[in-house]
Amino acid sequence: MNNKHKIIISYLNSSESYSTSSEIAQYLGVSERSIKRYIKDINLSLEQYGAKIDSVKGIGYKLNILYTKEFKKYIQSINLDSKDESIRSVDLIRSILIHSPISLDSLCEVLFLSRSTLQNEIGQVREMFEVYDIKLMYKPYKGLYIEGEEENIRKCCVKYFFKDDNDSELCENLDLINDNFIKYLQKYIEKSFLDNNIFKNYYEIIYLSKFIAVCFFRSLNGNKVKLPVVGNYKDITSTFNDTFIKDIYEHYDLVIDEDEILYANIIAKADKKLILNINPKEEYIRSIIMKALIDIDIKYKVFLSEDIELIKYLTNHILNSYHRYYLKFNVDNTILNQVKMNYPQSFNYALELAKSIEDIFKVEINENELGYIAIHFATAIERLNQKTSYRAIIICNTGMGTSELLKTKLRRYFPDIEVIGCYQLNFINFDSFEEIDFIISTTSTKGYINNNSIIRVSPMMTNEDIDIIENKLNEIYFNKYLKNLFLQDIFYYKLNLNNKMELIEFISDDMVQKGFISSKDKVDVIKRENISSTEISDLVAVPHCISNDGSNVIAICSLEKPIKWGSTKIKLVFIAFLNSEIKNNKNVFSFINSKIKKGDTVNRLCECVTLDKFTQVLMESSSNDS
């Protein structure tokens, strides 16, 4: 399969619904006829990998996975390609890590490569090592070898020795370190943690098992690591104790250096006495979190510092995760992209808190860890959103029982709606309800009142009624507030740009020149993008900055061809400059996200030449996507 075939498979694999040939064609920048030909070619060979692409006339294409295990292996290999890490380059890195130093001839023999093919891959491999601050070196008569901090080399080994970030199966056995030993190690760590009342999530245990296995491998091959500064070694609870040492010798013929066993205990964080300067007191962590939340409240005009549950869970999370920050662990976060997509504001709050922790403790919190922190903020936002945002009355002529049922269902599906009363139509004075946002009625109001504020529903409130109410809430929010942030002068249609920074620079400069934003706003949005990429779906990105003295406007940009943005390609960009003083801004991200869930909606939006047409399609999208 060629690269376009693999991109189509990855695209369909990431979508839960059918995708049209038009959507896929625009994503790849080819014709619809080409897509149909590609899919026909793909299906000739895809079934051997446990899947096929189904097509329904007039609806589109959908990936049908027949055999999960076989397809999972295949998708892992093409995901490597999509990240510009070819399978050949990965094999090269792994061989160099295992055998360094190794001659070019030996490497060619191990991997069945020609000398010229190997030379072509060296540049890519060198760049991949540099991600871990490792230098790939070469000397005549010695061959290729690596230089770098031992801890960084070990982290690199964890990345390339295993088949999957979320599993502990080796790509190949490492002499005495094999899959059976790693499974034993994982079970041993789990039991030891439970015995010591230490609770880690599944992915952290997987990572620890892999990292410690790599540590033992490197140690057995004569590579020592510098121990962190610790307190009295006798105070450290021995997760890897004499029983462990005896077991691995008897069953796996392994003799591990004493310092390496101590290092493994430090890495596992066996108890809370562990490392002198990485064990801050609970009260101190709570005080840092409280100050950060107050700063977030002031900057973003929210009330997170009043959320007792948020403070408690953040404190526990930081205490339990702190050793990972200190030791620069990077535990994979399988839901990072979902968090960034669905809760971008939460991610911003996590950035603010992380900065406080980094500044005080001189540690570094990576993006995966930010995602875990953001989940706690997302939970707090959901609690905040349950507070009343809209006021409504119910008109129902079939009795109080039906009215109460309707009111109860509304509370269940729409906790942000406050029902201030239930009335029969002929006993209501509409003039006394100037402050309500809309009326929910189970009966016709013709002859009494007739305007757009009435939502007609059935007494039982069906799924269709729920969709209608949701659309109405979006319409109210958009018409009352959000559409004022969209302006024709900063609506950019089908620009032809090469990368995200070029796009942000171009639009920001134009907005500065037109007086919509300041130069500081431009700097802030670029600074935010550099911290963490802002794509919220496979096709849409929302770069943004939020401040209490900044501009309040949103630029819209569609692209002639998709461009790389973080981990995906995008074709529609909302650039938001939001003032945290304005309460309604807290719903901007969730509104945009709710409108662009399907690729066909994004494609329709990208075809809009005017802002009026764009907003019309945007508001139609919920009914079309439901």
Quick summary of this structure?
The protein has 24 helices and 13 strands. By secondary structure, the chain is of the alpha/beta class. It folds into five domains: 80 residues, Winged helix-like DNA-binding domain superfamily/Winged helix DNA-binding domain (Arc Repressor Mutant, subunit A), CATH 1.10.10.10; 66 residues, Winged helix-like DNA-binding domain superfamily/Winged helix DNA-binding domain (Arc Repressor Mutant, subunit A, Orthogonal Bundle); 104 residues, PTS-regulatory domain, PRD; 90 residues, Rossmann fold, CATH 3.40.50.2300; 145 residues, Mannitol-specific EII, Chain A (3-Layer(aba) Sandwich).
Protein described:
There is one protein chain. This protein is 53% helix and 13% strand. It contains 24 helices and 13 strands. It has helices spanning 3-13, 21-28, 32-46, 68-82, 87-99, 104-111, 115-130, 150-161, 179-195, 202-220, 242-252, 258-268, 282-300, 308-327, 336-342, 344-361, 367-385, 400-413, 463-480, 500-514, 519-531, 588-595, 599-606, 611-625; strands spanning 51-56, 60-65, 135-139, 143-147, 390-395, 417-423, 438-441, 454-456, 486-495, 540-541, 544-547, 553-565, 568-579. Residues 390-481 form the PTS EIIB type-2 domain. This is Transcription antiterminator.
